[in-house]
């Protein structure tokens, strides 16, 4: 593994190694010294073209717990906002000797492009409407911690699938890990070729809920509401929101996930979000462990980084 | 986690310690520990993954038999503290298991199968430092084969084994390999092998590089 | 220029019989075996195929406005290197070619460069805005004598405006060349909508957005009895609709680009915008239908849609990159590879689709003529047995955005003659 660009690049063994490694590294968070010397002398650049405080902080905490030097490079207040191209920025990072670059960008494929221009390892922290592989890894980790396994689990992913990088990465990764994924959305929010994806599709949340071990609610972005993907937020919420009634129809063991930030009321009601069967808070903690594992596997060995 | 390698099963390897000798060595070490720690009132045994862990458990059992009380023991994974991570592909991380007593104020006896360059022990001391502040740290090894690269020495040694750097020492343990033995043989005949690869094999094979 | 007499030895006329061709005074003076001519410069064709000089109905020369990407001089040199003796320069320049002044400027620049005839295309609507007709008649009456009108890059999506344009240009035998793209269905579109775009998370450009406009415009053209030309047809459905329209008697012609005859949308998996183009690369099924359509005459011509862009417009994120690819210097090789070497077309068929028909659609009288005695001496010699690795950096174009860069393609343009004057000899610009 040289970069982490797509969840689909991970084999079952590789994905399992990331989760197992994350499990061991999670212990560090409970120690008095929350730090490992492993990546001492390595430089990780957080290259964030989109505001995403939670993802950036998660990667930053992960890198720092591994003793890497972290440089935060955000679009605001840097040469990026003055029109410097991604390629020129990449060459700058290269000259600075970045061993790893974590990139968040509004353009699908930005991480792939960056990987062609820098020698260091590139971690895709969300590229446009393409993928967000570390989110899928932390989701898988969270499911495995709660349910004890992934193989054969029935996972429903509900919401704006078409524009969701979280959905794309989750479908690929959960399929690799043996879970059975069902996408639930109005047809307007599903990709046209969704039937070729390795998952099932339904337009009816009520039909899917009782048969789900995990229900993953996705964010519906405000701009979709004005683009005729659905008539009104109220109608969306009525058909695809997870309220108390629907929650009650889920199996007792089933859990509710959300990648955050969530719109309480529309996608998920407050009582569901705050229920003990909601994993929303532990997803954040698990994010640090999973990102530590990814940075460790990409940056610690001989096949990675800039070498010296 | 590690695939266990048996690359040196070849006829050129010879056993320098067999099961009963290993048993006797461990029993002796157990008594030495008790003697040196004046009854071992606050000792904790930590085996260094992978080969040190079964040895730590066996030592704990022997001390328990003598003292008739339970001796805390655990496992220490030093992967994240190795000084040679960049010399090989990323390694799988093992589990560190610290007994409930913790390490603060304890006399921690690190246990490993082979003492060679001393680098594993150096990493273990670093790992231990991040876990807490023991009152003292001691080191027990089944085999000391010499060729230290760091100022480190063992407090308890099962057997001193003079070797050539080019030779290969392998410790087999019942719990991991199905039988107990310490084997010595020529360096594995793989052409062009980088020296650090010697260290990446299974239990006890030059384990402390 | 002093010697305007050339004797081409041993050419295969349209890939058929071997003959010598004598060019004198801008005309073909003789064709036959064993010709002799005192004082003529002899060009040994060594069995190369002789074609009438190629005519490109769809070229972007970028001047005025984007001289960093291409100029009339560099673009027409690129055309000559590709075997072209005439190109139609699209109107989406800055300022837009929507007045007699701009089209005459482009026309004059072409004459000054002298590498091939440059015929400006006039914009259909003012500023390509899609709201008001440009002064089509003034452009037609200008020195440039514009006959082809197009908002290429933008679709004339307003049905009423399209109807008016189709009707209006009848007064001077013009033709509207439509860039068929329903704008609402393609807002933010990045690539062909389908399995690949869904996987890559790139906004889709559905085939229906092209096909719906083509169907509408064919019906409109039929209704008002006008000529209609469809630019860069890219989908199987479009081919079927055009075939149906022609069977009804609609006076529609259509073009396909070399890249749509060869490349498919899965190339976008690299996220390298060298493969970003409008209309986008489609699926293998579409490519097959386009080849069939070109072979059976549903699609009339091959046009390059040569679209130069500076490297910074391509060395970027996909969605920020410019659309378009170079085409002039690889068109004939791609057509040989996809149509001739596959047995779908012979060289006479290539001559019809890359010279005769485009000249006829553009109402050029001195181009696209047969290789016959007395005709203008516009001749391209093409060595079909050569093989080359495409090197975008070595092209005559000012830009390097060729999707064929690094590919091995057959054939090489050995020489191009424009009215008897060599613009390319031995594969080198003159």
Automatic annotation (TrEMBL), chain A:
It comes from the Bacteria. Residues 151-298 form the Aspartate/ornithine carbamoyltransferase Asp/Orn-binding domain. One of its GO terms (molecular function) is aspartate carbamoyltransferase activity. The keyword Metal-binding does not apply. It catalyses: carbamoyl phosphate + L-aspartate = N-carbamoyl-L-aspartate + phosphate + H(+). Pfam families: OTCace, OTCace_N. It is an enzyme of class 2 (transferase). Keywords: Pyrimidine biosynthesis, Transferase. Belongs to the aspartate/ornithine carbamoyltransferase superfamily. ATCase family. Heterododecamer (2C3:3R2) of six catalytic PyrB chains organized as two trimers (C3), and six regulatory PyrI chains organized as three dimers (R2). This is Aspartate carbamoyltransferase.
UniProtKB/TrEMBL annotation, chain B:
Residues 15-173 form the Phosphoribosyltransferase domain. The keyword Protein transport does not apply. This is Bifunctional protein PyrR. It holds the Pfam family Pribosyltran. It catalyses: UMP + diphosphate = 5-phospho-alpha-D-ribose 1-diphosphate + uracil. One of its GO terms (biological process) is regulation of DNA-templated transcription. The gene is pyrR. Belongs to the purine/pyrimidine phosphoribosyltransferase family. PyrR subfamily. NCBIfam families: PRK05205.1-3 (NF003547), PRK05205.1-5 (NF003549). Residues 185-209 are annotated as: Disordered. InterPro entries: PRTase-like (IPR029057), PRTase_dom (IPR000836), PyrR (IPR023050), PyrR_bifunctional (IPR050137). A motif (PRPP-binding) lies at residues 108-120. Keywords: Glycosyltransferase, Transcription, Transcription regulation, Transferase. Gene3D superfamilies: 3.40.50.2020.
Automatic annotation (TrEMBL), chain C:
Substrate binds at residues 60-62, 92, 278, 309. InterPro entries: DHOase, DHOase/Allantoinase_Hydrolase, DHOase_cat, Dihydroorotase_CS, Metal-dep_hydrolase_composite, Metal_Hydrolase. It holds the Pfam family DHOase. Zn(2+) 2 binds at residues 152, 179, 232. The active site is at 305. GO terms for biological process: 'de novo' UMP biosynthetic process; purine nucleobase catabolic process. PROSITE patterns: DIHYDROOROTASE_2 (PS00483). This is Dihydroorotase. It comes from Actinorugispora endophytica. The gene is pyrC.
